[in-house]
Design a protein that fits this description.
This protein is an alpha/beta fold. It has a seven-stranded mixed sheet, with helices on both faces.
C-alpha cells in the first residue's frame, strides 16, 4: 500500500480502490467459540465477495492476539488480502506477545500480509519509561485508522463498553464520528453502494460470572448485486 493511499482509501474511485474491511475485537476469545466465530466471519466475507464480484478486497488488521488474528486467518482463506498497520516498530510490538506460540502466529500472518507499515511514527515512544501512555496512544492511533478507512467495520465484541481508549467500544464510537464527518463534508465513503458496521456478538474468556451472549451477526449483510457484476 502506497504512502498516499494509507489515509485516503475511501476517497478513491470504486474502480481503483479495494473494498476495505476493518476489524476490532477482544483478545481474550473463548477457545470453544472459535469454530463458530470462523463460520460467522466466512459468512461475512463470502456475502460481500458475492455481492461485489469484480472488486478487490482487503482486511486491515494489526494482528493483535484474538479477534484480529482470527479475522485475518479467515480473510486469507476467503481470498481477501491482508494489510497490517503496526502500532509501533515490529520488534517493540512483539513484546506484547508473551508466548512462543503467539509470536510465531503473529510472524506467520505478517509474512502472509500483502503490505505492512508502522502507524503514528510521531506518537510518543512506547518503550519510554517517561511516558506511560505512549503505548496506549499508539494502539488508539491504529484503532482510529481502522475506524476511518474501512468500508465495513467488523466488530468481534460482547457489546460492553469498558471505556478504554483504543478498545473496541472506543473504535465503534470513532467509526460513528468519522462517518458523521464524511456525511457533513459530502465525502461519504459509500463508493461501493455500501458502508456499515457488522457486529459479531463475541463472548470474552475473562467475563466471569456474566451471562455469555450467543455468537451471532448483528447487521445487514448485502444480497446479490447483479448490477455490479
Amino acid at each position: 500500500m502506497s504512502e498516499q493511499n494509507k489515509d485516503t482509501i475511501l476517497e478513491l474511485a470504486a474502480n481503483q480502490a479495494p473494498f476495505v474491511f476493518g476489524v476490532s475485537g477482544h483478545r481474550d476469545l473463548v477457545r470453544t467459540d472459535l469454530p463458530e466465530l470462523r463460520k460467522q466471519l466466512h459468512t461475512v466475507f463470502d456475502r460481500f465477495r458475492s455481492a461485489y464480484p469484480n472488486a478487490a478486497f482487503e482486511l486491515i488488521s494489526p494482528l493483535a492476539e484474538g479477534a484480529d488474528r482470527v479475522a485475518a486467518e479467515v480473510a486469507l482463506t476467503c481470498g481477501v488480502k491482508l494489510v497490517v498497520p503496526l502500532p509501533m516498530a515490529q520488534q517493540e510490538y512483539e513484546r506484547d506477545f508473551t508466548t512462543a506460540e503467539s509470536l510465531s502466529e503473529f510472524r506467520r500472518l505478517l509474512v502472509a500480509a500483502n503490505s505492512q507499515w508502522e502507524v503514528s511514527e510521531d506518537s510518543p515512544n512506547p518503550s519510554s519509561s517517561s511516558d506511560s501512555n505512549g503505548r496506549a496512544q499508539r494502539y488508539a492511533a491504529v484503532g482510529d485508522l481502522i475506524a476511518r478507512t474501512s468500508h465495513v467495520l467488523i466488530l468481534l465484541w460482547d457489546g460492553r463498553d469498558n471505556e478504554k481508549v483504543g478498545g473496541t467500544a472506543w473504535v465503534k464510537k470513532r467509526r460513528e464520528y468519522w462517518l458523521r464527518v464524511a456525511e457533513e463534508k459530502g465525502t461519504s465513503p459509500d463508493v461501493f453502494g455500501y458502508v456499515g458496521t457488522i457486529h459479531i456478538v463475541t463472548p470474552r474468556e475473562t467475563a466471569e460470572g456474566a451471562a455469555r451472549p450467543r455468537v451471532e451477526i448483528i447487521g445487514e449483510l448485502p444480497g446479490e448485486a447483479p448490477g455490479l457484476r
